[in-house]
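Just wondering, can you check both lines?
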Amino acid sequence: MLDKAVLERLRAMTERNVVRIRAAGEFRGSGFLVSRDTVLTCAHVVAGCEERSLTAEVDGGVLAVEVVALAPPARGEGAVHGFPDLAALRLSEPVGHTDGVWLDERAPTQSERVSVHGFSGRTLEPGIQPDTLDLRVAGHSGRFVRLHGDQVVQGFSGGPVLSTGTGRVCGILKASRNEKNESGGWLIPVEAVEECTPGLLERNAAAHRPGTDWFDVARGRTELQEALFDAADDGAAPPATPSRMLAQGAMPFVDRPELEQLETWCHEPSDQVLRLLHAPGGAGKTRLSAEVCRRVRERGWIAGFAERDAFRDPSGRGRWLESLTTALTAGFPVLVVFDYAQARQDDVGALLKHVHRRRTRDLTLRVLLLARSEEPLWRSLREALEDLGIDDWALRSAVSRRLPDTIATTGPEDLAARAFTEFARQLGCPWLPVPVSLGGRAGRQDSLLGVLASALDAVLTLRHGGTWAEGEDPLERICRHETRGWHALLEDRLGRDGPLAGRGGPLMTQGLLLVPTLATGRDREELTALLGRTREAAFPGQPALNMSSVHACLRMLYPSGPGGVAPLEPDRVGEILIRRVLGEEESSGPGGRGYLRAVLDGGGLEGDRRADALLETLDALARSRGCTSVGRVVEHPAHELLDRALAEAVRANPRELLPALAVTGGRVPHAEPLAGVMRPVLETCDTSLLLEVEKHLPGHPSGLSEVSALVLTRLLREPDASDGEADRLLRIRRLRACSLRHEETGRRTEAIEAAARAVELSRDLRRRSASYTADHAMALSHLSLLKHREGQNGPALELSVEAVALHRELLDAAGGDRRRRLLDTASALSTLALLRLSDHQVNGAAADAAEGVTWCDQAAPGGRQEDVLLECLELLAVCRQRTGLTEDALATGAEALELLRGLAERRPGHYRTRLPESLHRHGLHLVWAGRPDEAYGAVREGVLLRAALPPTPARARDQRNALELLLRLSGDVDTAAQERSSWVGMLSATDG
C-alpha cells in the first residue's frame, strides 16, 4: 500500500474529478472525468433517460452531456445491468483544470484495499453530498469483482474505485450487495473500459506521464528526487560571499548552444546512455549541467548531481542505487550528473552495472560526466566497463565533447557588462556605472568564469570606493576579496587582538579557511578537531584560538548538509587559495610541512572513509599543482613549495600516501609532479610497500608510467615465493605491464626484453596447462608489435602467426566470454594483417583483415569493437586496392570512413585527427578508380580538416602532399578551377 500522505493526496485528486450526474434535475448517480471532456459512469445510471435532460456537475458548474457509448445498450433480462454496465459521456465543453483520473492497467487483486469516491444522500448533511467508502477486494465474481467491508449505498454507482496499491483508478463501482449492512458490492474492472470505448485507455495513459500531477504523486517523484539528489534545506540562505556568487548562479544563466545539444540528447529516443563533457576549470560545465537538470525536471525528469556522500559507504551506495532502480522502473526518465568524474569512476561503474543488471527496454537513463580533460578518464573508464562486461551497452554511441571556454552566442564584452549590472543590483549598488575598461579586460580572459570574475571584482572594488583598473588575474582578486571577508568575520566574532592582529592575522586565517577545502565531508566535531590540529602543527606554541567559534563562522558562510562545511567554490578559487596558503609561511607555517601533514593525517577517520578523505585531499592538491591542466602546465612559484611539503609528508607517511598518490596520478593528464614526489621513496622502500602501490598503479599510459616501470622492475628482481603456476602467472603479467610502461617512456630495448621474457615464461606455463593459453597469446601479440616497431618484421610476423592461432583456439572454446574472444581474435588478426602488408604478403593480409571484420561484426557494438573494426576495415581497403579489387576497396574504404566519421562526431578529441589521413587515402583510391570529382571532394575535405588542427611537422608534411594532389586534380575537375588559387596560397604558407 502507498504511503498514507501520498494516498491522501490521491484521494483528494480523485474527489476533484468526481461528478454528479442528473437527468431532468434529478440525481442519478456518480461519474468521473477520464479526460478533459469525457466522463465514465455506469450504463444503468443514464439508461432510459432523455439524453437532452442529462447534465453533469463539474467543479461547481453544470454542463450538458452526450452519451457516446453505452454497453450493454439495454438492461437485459437479469435483475441488474449486464456486463460491462459502462457508459461514456461527452461534456458540452472541456474542463481546463484536469486531465481526469489516471486509469490503471488491471483490476485490483484479492485482499487489496480500495477507496470509492462518489455522492450519496446518506451523509450527516442534508441532500446529496460527497461521500467515500473503504473496501477490500474479495475476488472475481463472474466478470465483475466482488468487494466487501463497507456499506455501499445508492448514489455511488459509477464512482471511481482508487487502488491503494498503485494509486490509480482500477474500476468503477457498480452496485451494492445489500444497502442495509456492510456487505460491500461489485466493481467493473478497468479492463472493461476498452470494450466500451476502444482507445480510451491508451489516450488516458498518454495524458498521464512523468511531469503530470497524478503520475508524479502516484509514483513518488518528489520523494525519489530527494532520495537521489536534493540535499535537505538547512535553513536561511548563507551570506553571498564573492566565491559563492560565482559558484552558485547569482548571475542568471546565459543561454549557450550546448544547452540545446544536451537537452536533445536527453529527450530524443536513443541508446546513448553516457556522455562526457570536458573542459578546463571555469568553462561553465557545472552551471550548464545544473541548467540542463532544471529544464528536464520541468518536463518530468528526475535529475541532479550524484553527490559523493551518497556513495561513501556500501550501504549508502546500495540505498542510492535501489532508489535509482525504483525511479526508472516507475517510468521516470533520470539524468545523473557526476562532477569530477575522474575521481568517481568506481561510482559510475557501480551505477551502470546495477542498471544493466536490472534494465528493461523502456527505461530512460542518461549519465553525464564532467571532467577537466578527456584522457585518461575515457580510457580508464572503458577498461573498467570492459572488465565489468557492460561496455557494449554503456559505451554504445557514447559521446565525449569539449565545452568551449566561452559562450559562442554572447561575446565576453557583453557578458561582462550584463554580469556587472546584475552583481551590482544584488550587492545593493545598482547605481555603479560599468567601467569603460571592463569589456577589454573580459575579452582577454581564458574562460567564462574569468569573465564573470572580472565583473564581480569590479563591483566589489568600486562599491567600497576603490579604483578599479587593469591588474592581476580576476580570480586571484576574488580569492583576496573572499579572504578579507572571512578575516573580518573572525575579527567580529573573536576580537581583533591576539592571533588575529597584525600583518600575520589575515594570513593565518586564510590557512584556516582552506582546511574544509582540503578536508571535505567532515562533521562538526571532526572538522573542529582538525582545525585545532592543523593550527598547532603549523604554528606550535602560538596562542590558541576558539576553534568551535571558527567552525561556527565557517558554517555560517559555507554550510553543507547537517552540520557540515562546504569547500571553497568555484574550484579555481579554491586552487588559488591552496597555492597562496602553502606559499605563505604566515598561512601554513615553515614550508607548509606541518600544515600539510596535519591535513593529510586523517586523524579520527577509519577504514574506507579515511582512504576516501585522503584521495579527495590529494585530488585538490593535484588540481592546484596543475596536474589537471590540458596542454602545458603553467609554472607557479608555489609549485616548488607544494612539492617539497608533499614530499616530506610522503616520507613521513609512505604507506598511506604512496598508494593514494598512485590512484590520484592515474586520474589526471599530468601526473609527472606526483611521480617526482613518489620516486625517491619508491627507489628504496621495502617490498611490502611496493606490493601495495602496485595494486593502485594505472593500467593505461599516464604520467606515472616511469614510476610504474620502477615499481614493476623492482618487484621483478625479487625471487618468486615458489615455483607454482600462480607465481609464474603473476610474473608474466608484471613483465607485460612493465614492457608497456617502458615502451610509453621511450625505453624500447627494455620493453622488448621484458616482453620476450613474458613470452618465454607463458609458453612454459601453457605447456603445463591449456588454461594459460590466453596469457601466452597476449604476450606473443605484444612482443610481435614491439619487434615490428623496431624494424624486426620477420620475427614479428612469426610471433603474430602463432598468436592468431592461439586466439582462434580460444574463440572455438569460448563460452560466456565469447564477445571478448571475438575482439581479441580480431585485434590479433589486424596486427597480423599489418605485418603481412609490411612484408608484401598482400593476399594473406587481405584474408586476415577480412576475417577480423567478420569477427567484429559478430560482437556487440561498443568502444573496443568499433576501434578494432575500424583498424580491420582500413587495412582491408588498402589490401583490396593493392590486389586490384578497386571497387571492393572503395566500398570497404567508404565503410571505414563512415565509421570514423561517426566516431569523430562522438569523440572529436580522440578521432578527429585521424579523419584527414583517412580522407586522403580514400581520395587516392578514387583517383585510381578514375573518379577525379569524388577524389577531389575527399582530399579537399581532408585538407580543410587538417588545416584546423594544431600544426606539427608530420601534419605539415601530410598537408603539403595533399595540397599537391589537389592542385593536380583541379586540372581535371571543372568546378575546382576557382579554388586553385586558394590551394596555391596554402601550399606556399605550408612551405614557408
Notes: The first strand starts at residue 18 and ends at 23.
